[in-house]
Amino acid sequence: MVHTFSAYDPDWELAERMLQMERYAWLSLTHDMGTVLSIDGRFDDVNTQWEAVTGYDECELLGSYLVEFMHFDDRERALADWQSLITADVSTTSVAFRFLCKDGEYKRLSWNLMYSPEHECFFCTVKDVNESLSDMAIQYAYKDVLTGLGNRLFLMDAVPAWIEEAHRGGAQLAVCFLDLDGFKLVNDTYGHKVGDLLLKKVAEKLTRSVPRDCVVRLGGDEFVIVLRDVASREAVTHLLQELMQSINTAVCIEGQDCSVGVSVGVGMFPEDGASLEELVQVADEAMYDVKREGKNDFAFRRKLSKENAA
């Protein structure tokens, strides 16, 4: 006897109802502003907290593009961080930018983002930095959701004061821009969960040698280390050599040996710049010099290598 089987016909209407229930539960449980954004950046769903903070009710936000509310000067950086959730194969990141409210004023909002490939959307929790009423809320706004390190908002708010302090005291300060080498391969081979756990391991390694409040995760597989009151380039060189050796050491995650390298660029205050923006730009350019020359190394400005620095 030959058995025949009818083709499986999924109940797409039921699947859609389940997805909507999942979104509703998530949005209802968060105490902060919550939203679900489509992959092209449209507001697909929001909770009721948005109206109290921004003045917009649900009907005014749904279907609108987030970029329409971003301050023009913040757009390029914020969108690049957003895109890293897809291109860098990480599942979470943090970003902060000025958001245009209904009264015409801008408020700086801190976003914790999670990209869901299954739903093809972003789940976001959002906090108004200007109106944070407690120390706990402020700490939340400054923290990277995955690693617990400081985020870009913390970098932007804290480091200018450190630079000013170094200026008054005649001290040097180093801004080190780190980008992991080979992280995408680990993610593609073992999946996002292992990739996220590896990022946490890297964060732990960095904070063994550097004070925790001096280490920032920008998003994706990018980190910044700020070294305060450094004696010389040689001191920076010595520390980076130790950090690279630690990061290059493989770690076992869920039974898999995972290893990555790291490319590092360094900007020195006051030699390379007087502001955070200038120092980050110098460090970023030096890091890309390392990438072009073979990766897994570090460089100061003008391709000054560790041998020359020493």
Automatic annotation (TrEMBL):
InterPro entries listed in its UniProt record: Biofilm_reg_signaling, GGDEF_dom, Nucleotide_cyclase, PAS, PAS-like_dom_sf, PAS_fold_3, Rev_trsase/Diguanyl_cyclase
Organism superkingdom: Bacteria
UniProt xrefs under SMART domains: GGDEF (SM00267), PAS (SM00091)
Pfam families registered for this protein in UniProt: GGDEF, PAS_3
GGDEF domain residues: 171-303
Domain PAS: 36-89
Family annotation (NCBIfam families): GGDEF, sensory_box
Protein name stated in the entry: Uncharacterized protein
